[in-house]
Design brief:
The protein has a domain at 40-103. It is built from three helices and no strands. The protein has helices at 3-16, 29-64, 79-95. With 103 residues, the protein is mainly α. The longest helix has 36 residues, at 29-64.
């Protein structure tokens, strides 16, 4: 029963020791080792909350006016398409990189 929390803590600790996108220059220091597991935990919660909100919003805007109903000229002026673009950007921001704390 205690192996799952221990395994999760081990995975998060190893994630803090991983190299960043720069190729492992090694100058991340202690802030990366201790901050990355916390970043991953907070990012997972923020990503889950974003998806919980974004899914119904996108579905309702698609029900209101599907993007296939729009011509190429009118797509830029439709608020439903803009809302879906904002939701997509929010998901990218909250669920995307960075995954490693750097200086």
């Amino acid at each position: 029963m205690r192996t799952r929390p221990l395994a999760a803590a081990l995975v998060l600790a190893l994630a803090g020791c991983s190299s960043g996108p720069g190729g492992g220059s090694g100058d991340f220091g202690a802030i990366s080792i201790f901050g990355t597991p916390i970043l991953l935990a907070l990012k997972a919660g923020a990503c889950a909350a974003t998806i919980v909100v974004a899914a119904p919003v996108s579905a309702f805007t698609m029900l209101a006016r599907p993007s296939s109903d729009l011509g190429a000229v009118n797509a830029d002026f439709d608020y439903n398409v803009q809302i879906r673009d904002y939701v997509d950007d929010g998901i990218d921001q909250n669920c995307g990189p960075p995954y490693v704390v750097t200086r």
